[in-house]
Every structure is written in C-alpha cells, then in structure tokens.
Amino acid sequence: MKNLDLTPHEEKLIKQSLRAKPPKNVFDHTFKGNLIRFGYFSDTHMGEKYFHESLWRSMIFTFQKEEIKHVYGAGDILEGMSGRPGHIYELAHIGASAQLAYATSMFKLGTNLKFHIITGNHDMWFKDKNNAGLDVGEELASRCKNIEYLGQWEADVILNKNCRMKLFHGNDGTAYADSYKIQKLIESLEGGEKPNIILSGHYHKQIAIFRRNVFGFECGTLCGQTRYMRGKKIQAHKGFGIIETWVGKHGVERLRHEFFPFYG
Fold this sequence. Notes:
Strand order of the largest sheet: 1-6-7-8-10-9
Order of helices and strands: HEEHEHEHEEEHEEEHEE
CATH topology: Purple Acid Phosphatase, chain A, domain 2
CATH architecture: 4-Layer Sandwich
CATH superfamily: Metallo-dependent phosphatases
Shape: globular
Mean pLDDT: 91
Distance between the termini: 65 Å
Radius of gyration: 20 Å
Largest sheet: 6 strands, mixed
Structural class: alpha/beta
Number of domains: 1
Strand content: 25-35%
Low-confidence stretches: none
Number of helices: 6
C-alpha cells in the first residue's frame, strides 16, 4: 500500500474495511443463575385464514402456567400481501392496518410475557417488496409494551456470559429432507462465531438437532397448511416449545426441550 501514497490512518481504514462483516443485531438478555428457561414460537402469519388463534391462546396459557417469562419469536409474525395469484383470497385480514391491529390484540393477550421477535420474509413485504418502508416489527413494538423488536432476519442474544443464542429466519424454499436446512445453517456458520443455540423459522417444521456443538431448533408454526403449501406438498408442523438449559463455564452442560404439538 506504500506505493499508493496513503497515510497510516487511510491504510488502517482500508484494512478494517477488508475485514468488515455485515452488522449484527446483538442483545444482552443475561438471565440470573445457571438455569435458563424460555418459550419459543415462529411463523404465526397473523392475517392468514389458517392462523390458529386458538393455538396462540393455548400457547400463552401454557407459558403462563409454566411460569415462562421470556418468549422468542423467529419471524413471519404477519402474513403480508405476497402478491402471488389468488393470495388475497387466503387472507382473513387484508392490508397492513388490519393485520397490525389484529396482531396487536393477540400480543396484548399475554401482557405478563415478554416477547422478543425478529421479522421474516412475509413481514418484510410491507417494507421491501412493495417499497412502502413499513417495518412491522418496529410498529408492533411501539404498540405493545411486552414486545422487544430484535431486527430483520436474524439477531444474536446473550443468555449469559457462556451462552449465546441466534434467532434466524430463512428466505428460500423447503428441502426434501426436513432436517437439511437447519443442518446447512449450522454448517454455514464460521468457526468462533457459532452460537450455542439457534432458533430458526420459515420452514414450518419442528426439528431438534445437535451439530457442531450447536443445539439447533426449527420452531414449527402456528399457521395451518395453506392452499399454497398443500399444492407444493409441504407439511406444517403446528405447535410451540419450551427450552430449559443449564449453563456452566464451558457453555451448555444440559438442555431439555419440550414441543407442544397441535392437531386441530
């Protein structure tokens, strides 16, 4: 770089830019003690006719009964307006105003729970796909005091000094083998940056896997099999879950996972 006649400061900035990576959303949720308990859900698709409000209510009741305080959501809170042919006929709530109002009423059913959510591809329709610039995660957090918005697509959460969790929402199609996507996600993470736990949304599957010392979970869905999914022969694993993990100085020493399936 000397022959470019750069100052030392300019050289430093260039070297830093070459090592630069996309910015991360990192949140410190440090739990007290070594036992960490939380609930999870994903892909509610509120606004879609096949969203199960009864399952949402059952989830809230279960978390309250189990004395869960923190709940993590892995994206696609709203259904959005995808624009695919015939999609509007699948909607129970049409447009951003109607879907946001309905979702607000649903989250307010669990005022004693703290929801930590990211947004996914269906949520992002209102911001990116129709270029309206509306971030529905920010809007929901402004309406509901029990929502913390963690950002778009993914976020890292510090559960304690020896345990980190990633929330992730995919943006591609389903795979022939249910476990393929969560396996590839874990494999794609660089060494030294792997979390201890991943909560992944988008595929509407419930998967629990341990790979590369990462506990990976596909979080299922609270939305039934839509006409689009049926046409693509894609199954919906309906339900929600609770994770308990004991963390020591080397990370996760023990983990217990419960999934609450729904057959309605």
